[in-house]
């Protein structure tokens, strides 16, 4: 009995260590890792992004180097000017290395997608937060603007705007610092090529913010009357402080998902405009204008459209799978 009593006393005296509770973002990361398609998609986008950043180092040929003798050469063809160099993905209709131009095109197309998604989300956040928090006349005005932007046929307007703005630079002048910034990021000529890129970014962003605004407004309406908001008001916090410190962070989870989907939308919009010849034009390489030229020769060279077309499909799917994974990871109602 004494021995049993001693064991009980020892067990009672032993300190109890409680497991440290997981943080919110730790739980999100753990749930996201279980979504295999999202993880594979994230790894794929990371590889493409790194390759586009290292384009000047890994590209085997100059971007616009032309070799008319090697028009539509097959993949892994040796260059006629330097037998030690291979055209890994062949050449295009005027003898430019397809792999090199694909890397430069990835840098430009993905940069446009990231810039458009970022600007659209930020504008939508601002409009939605103001409309949802202030209500009244401000909400009515901003919502009528949102409904108008959502009601008009977006793609035909994009085509018209892109065509008009590219033809007459005086209609939309861009400051020099923006032109030089885009030139440095995308490795393009600031005088000849930066403007068409900025026009594409402008017209896509002009119509791309409505989804984020509607989502943000709904989130603001769901939290604006909660106790912690009322407490902040009673303590004298300004409206701007309440929106930035309390309202916006509560809307982050769905906005993160919306951002990844906006990346896919921005990418496909840029590709569509360039494919139709109304966006970024040759010699600046993008996946859209590479696809445009390749389809003109697809009857005689059926593999040509696949080279720029496959990255477009894979990146669009990857962004959507990442969005699905984030949505599942951020939704506490789902059991994974």
TrEMBL record:
Pfam families: BPD_transp_1, OppC_N. GO terms for biological process: transmembrane transport. Keywords: Cell membrane, Membrane, Transmembrane, Transmembrane helix, Transport. It is found in: Cell membrane. It is a multi-pass membrane protein. Residues 106-323 form the ABC transmembrane type-1 domain. Coiled coil: none annotated. The keyword Membrane applies. GO terms for cellular component: plasma membrane. It comes from the Bacteria. The chain crosses the membrane at residues 37-59, 108-133, 145-165, 197-216, 306-326. Its main location: membrane. Belongs to the binding-protein-dependent transport system permease family. This is ABC transporter permease. It comes from Candidatus Thermofonsia Clade 3 bacterium. The lineage of its organism: Bacteria, Bacillati, Chloroflexota, Candidatus Thermofontia, Candidatus Thermofonsia Clade 3.
């Amino acid at each position: 009995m004494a021995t049993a009593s001693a064991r009980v006393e020892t067990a009672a005296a032993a300190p109890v260590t409680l497991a440290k509770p997981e943080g919110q973002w730790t739980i999100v990361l753990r749930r996201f890792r279980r979504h295999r398609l999202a993880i594979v998609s994230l790894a794929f986008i990371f590889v493409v992004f790194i390759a586009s950043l290292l384009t000047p180092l890994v590209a085997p040929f100059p971007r616009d180097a032309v070799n008319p003798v090697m028009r539509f050469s097959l993949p892994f063809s040796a260059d006629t000017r330097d037998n030690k160099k291979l055209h890994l993905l062949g050449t295009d209709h005027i003898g430019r290395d397809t792999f090199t131009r694909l890397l430069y095109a990835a840098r430009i197309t993905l940069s446009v997608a990231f810039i458009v998604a970022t600007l659209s989300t930020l504008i939508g956040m601002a409009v939605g937060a103001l409309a949802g928090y202030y209500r009244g006349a401000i909400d009515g005005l901003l919502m009528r603007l949102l409904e108008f932007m959502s009601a008009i046929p977006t793609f035909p307007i994009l085509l018209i705007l892109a065509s008009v703005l590219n033809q007459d630079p005086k209609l939309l002048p861009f400051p020099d610092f923006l032109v030089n910034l885009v030139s440095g990021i995308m490795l393009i000529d600031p005088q000849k090529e930066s403007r068409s890129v900025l026009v594409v970014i402008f017209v896509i962003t002009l119509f791309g913010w409505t989804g984020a605004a509607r989502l943000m407004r709904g989130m603001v309406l769901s939290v604006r009357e909660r106790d912690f908001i009322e407490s902040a008001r009673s303590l004298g916090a300004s409206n701007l402080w309440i929106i930035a410190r309390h309202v916006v962070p509560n809307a982050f989870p769905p906005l993160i998902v919306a951002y990844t989907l906006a990346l896919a939308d921005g990418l496909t919009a840029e590709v569509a405009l360039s494919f139709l010849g109304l966006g970024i034009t040759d010699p600046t390489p993008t996946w859209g204008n590479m696809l445009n030229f390749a389809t003109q020769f697809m009857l005689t060279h059926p593999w040509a459209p696949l080279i720029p077309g496959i990255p477009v499909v894979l990146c669009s799917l990857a962004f959507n799978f990442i969005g699905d994974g984030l949505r599942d990871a951020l939704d506490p109602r789902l059991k994974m």
